[in-house]
Structure formats: structure tokens, C-alpha cells
Amino acid sequence: MTSQPTPPNVGSHDLPISPALAAFMAGGWAATPLPADARVAGHDVLPARRAKLSTHFPGARLVIPAGQLKVRTNDCDYRFRPHTGYAWLTGLTGEDQAGNVLVLEPSGPEGHEPVLYLRPRSPRDGSSDEFYRDRRYGEFWVGRRPDLGESAQLTGLRTAHLDELEKLLAGPAPSGGVRLLAGVDPSVDAQLGLSDGLAPVLGELRLIKDAWEVDQLQLAVDHTTLGFEDVVRALPTALRHHRGERWLEGVFNLRARAEGNGTGYETIVASGAHAGVLHWIRNDGPLDSSQLLLLDAGVETDTLYTADITRTLPLSGTFTPVQRQVYELVLAAQDAGIAALRPGAAFRDFHRAAMRVIAEGLHDWGVLKVSAEEAMREDSGLYRRYTLCSSGHMLGLDVHDCAKARNETYLDGVLEAGQVLTVEPGLYLQPDDETLPPELRGIGVRIEDDLVITEDGARLMSSALPRTVAGIEQWMGELLG
After folding, report:
1. DSSP string covering 196-212, please?
2. What torsion do the CA atoms of 82, 83, 84, 90 make, to the nearest 10 degrees?
3. Residue 101 carries which DSSP code?
4. Average pLDDT of 151-165?
5. What is the Cα–Cα distance from 323 to 425, expressed in whole angstroms?
6. Fewest 10 Å CB contacts: which of 49, 186, 227, 228?
7. What's the DSSP call for residue 216?
8. Three-state SS across 449-461?
9. What one-character-per-residue DSSP string does 281-338 give?
């Protein structure tokens, strides 16, 4: 008895399929339709988003891929997350979106018709064995996908088989040309070549969050707050473990997976001098109760909106005098940055306000030998030896949201009501920095909170987590008993 040829995406160690088994697998399956009222989250706000994008490119075909699976090792892929632009326009956020593409096809002189090209659910009538043989896309391997009709129901969009996309893109282009969100799907890039213009516009359209988005971000912040509480409760166990940082990473990440899609970025758990490494994600160090712990972490919701919060905590539960000295300077800088947030203020104002406090404090300590005024000049910036990076960024579907927006609309622009951003000044005093007195070396402090710009200022979304020295010590004491 011979087996069928091995189809694509079947591992070399898979068992052969006999004709008898193939025939047996081709029937006897009950219908499992989606609930008739199933819709993507945010269904009602999606048409307005697509309409806004449409107005920027009259007559052009707009191609927005979800992205492709990426191999982690041999026949194992990384967990898939669709591209932010695709998720924002479709509401589709699941791992089953790999390879799918949204096309906004010109219709009329100004409008577009959105069409979702996708890989639908595999049939079980004997015409395909994908559902049980394909390791990448088979339902028995990676879970159910909606069929074309169900995808239309979920999104309100016209749907078409992914095979039809190649024919569309190979045909004549509309009069307004084709705009591709490039660098997302190599197969689409190869067919269309690189084009530009979509990424900056998508970034700029997402700068101001609607009320539904702000609610999703608040949910992410609330779940993150629970994760920080989990971490504090886990400190006694983590302090005894030889990789205490990694233990705490696991504790927070458990909350992120339990409450949402996971973490919005790799969790930073940096104890002692590791806090001086801005993106410390090795998290392989032990914990020392005499040191500080910098925890920078955020839960990503199932709708892919992420929080981004940092707290610096005394592992003993109580700040030492020198730890308190550093912490309170960073807190004063953050307070100054938050106070500068209001509609109409330059985006960079809050960073400048925070950095002036840092520079003044470093000068008062005798660390910075020049005045704060001189250190703040563009041709100087000497204070940055101890703080280095920017003091905040936009927040949303990406942790560093809207990064492709043009400078004049973002970094060199002004704040507007509905924008969500972080304020996160820090001091990173390296253990080998001979410009510092010995007692300051190896201390890193960052305090980061998430805020939404309101009509008259800003609302602190992460206010449930204490920021002051006394507040943190009391909070930790209550959680640790």
C-alpha cells in the first residue's frame, strides 16, 4: 500500500497517510459555524478609520498585508502578530491572520471598497487534506480559521480567497497607481516592488485615539497594574532563586498571557547595575535585597493595545538614603514632565522640562561640573551621560506607537486631546563611571507612566500604581504582608 505524496508544510517525521485513512478523513464532520452575532472588537469604529485613510489616496489601490509567519527553528514558527496597520483597519488580531492582505480598491472618484484577501478555513469534503496534514495552516495543528463568509460577517468586509490576490496585483493598476505598505510581507513586496506613503499616513492617523482605543489602553494599564502586584508578591521566592530576574519575568508574563494576548514588548527585569542597561531583557541575574529592581513591563490586550509602565522598587521594601536621593530626583523630573502636558504644547516640551530638573539635580550633587543651563544647550548635552534617552513616546497598538509618522506631525508637532503617551525620565548611573562618587555607581532608576491628553491637561491612566517613595514602601508592605 502506498501513501499519498507529502503536501507542503508537512514535517519529514510525519507518519504516511494511506488511501484508506485519507478516505476516512474526508467525511463524517459536523458543522461548527461561528455564532451569528460574532464581530471583531471595535467593529463599529473601523469604517471611519478606513474612510480617513481613503481620503489621502484618491484613485489609488492601497495594499496592507498582515505579514507572514517567521521560522523560529526548523519547522517551528514564532507566535504570529499581524502588522499594526492591518489590525487597526480590520480589527483582526489573531494568529490566524498570517498571509492575509487588506486591499482598498478605488471605487468612484474619491472612495474605496475594502476587500479582505485571506486563506479561508480548509474544506473537509475530501478536496483537501490541509486541515489535518498542514502543520502551518491546518486546523488540527494550529486551530480553526473562519471561512470567507464568516470573515465577512466578523469584519463587515467583502472577502476573497488569497489566491485571487496574485491575479489582481498582476493585472492593470488603477489610474491612481498602487500604494503598498512595504516591508511587511515579502511575497507581496516581490510582486509589487517597494512603494511608500502608506506608513507615515497610517502612523499619523493613529496619533489621536478614539474613545474605544482609550478604553482598550486603560484595560491594558489595569492588567499591567495587576502584573506589578504579582511581581511584588513573588519577591520572597525570587530573592531565593539564582535567576531571580527571570523568575519575576515569568510571573509578570503569566499575568499578561492570562489577561491578554501577552506582553506588548519584552519584559525588562533589571536588578542592581542591570538597570543601567536601557533595554535589559536577558533577565538572567540574581536579586540582592540591598539593591533596587527596575521593572519595565506592559500587558497587551487581545485587541493588541499595550501598556508601558516602569517602577523602580527597593528589593528590601525600603529605600536606602542614597537610593531615595536618586529616586526623588527622577520623580521630580517626571512630575515636571507631566505638568508640561496639555493640548497645544510642543511634543518635546515635557522631555525638556524633565531633563532640566535632571540637569539641575546632577549639578547640585556636584556630578555635573557645568551649570544646568550650559548642559542643556544643543551644543553640549553633557547631562545625557547619565540619562541618555528620550523621556517618552506615543503609545497604542505599538509600544513606540506611530513611529513612522513624519517629524512635523509627531516629534516636532504639538500635543492634541486624545493622544496617549508615556512620560519616563530616568537616571542610569553606570557601575564603572569614574565621574560618579562610589555610592552612586550602579544605581538605575526609571519611573514611567501612561497618560492621555485631555482638553485641559492630561489624565494619569496608571495612577493605581504608587509613584512616591512613601507610597511605594507602603504598597510593597501591604502586598508582602
Report:
1. -SHHHHHHHHTSS--HH
2. -60
3. E
4. 97
5. 16
6. 186
7. H
8. EEEEECCCCEEEC
9. --------TTSEEEEEE-EEPTT--B--EEEEEETTSS--HHHHHHHHHHHHHHHHHH
Q: What is the pLDDT of residue 7?
A: 55
C-alpha cell at 226: 495587576
Strand partners, 316: none
Under the banding of pLDDT at 50, 70 and 90, the label for residue 1 is very low
- Closest residue by Cα to residue 297 from 306, 289, 286: 306
Closest C-alpha among 338, 330, 306 to residue 469: 330
Percent of the chain with pLDDT over 70: 97
CA distances from 158 to 102, 152, 195 (A): 10, 6, 25
pLDDT digits (tens, 9 = 90+) for 7-43: 567 665 678 999 999 999 999 999 999 999 999 999 9
Q: What are phi and psi of 450, to 5 degrees?
A: -105, 135
CB atoms within 10 A of CB 170: 9
Output the pLDDT for position 140.
Answer: 96
Residue type, 257: R
Residue 255 exposure: Cα atoms within 13 Å on the Cβ side? 23
Q: Is 344 exposed, middle or buried (0-12, 13-18, 19+ CB in 10 A)?
A: exposed
Buried b (16+ CB within 10 A) or exposed e, 455-472: eeebebbbeebebebeeb
pLDDT at 6 over 60: no
Angle at 244 between CA 243 and CA 246, to 5 degrees: 70
Mean pLDDT for 377-403 is: 97
pLDDT in tens, 404-427: 999 999 999 999 999 999 999 999
SS3 (DSSP) at 265: coil
Of 248, 446, 230, 245, the residue nearest 337 (C-alpha): 446
- Report the chain's mean pLDDT, rounded to a whole number: 95
DSSP 145: -
d(CA 244, CA 432): 23
| 193 band by pLDDT with thresholds 50, 70 and 90 | confident
Confidence of residue 161 (pLDDT cuts 50, 70, 90): very high
Note whether 299 and 259 are within 8 A (CB): yes
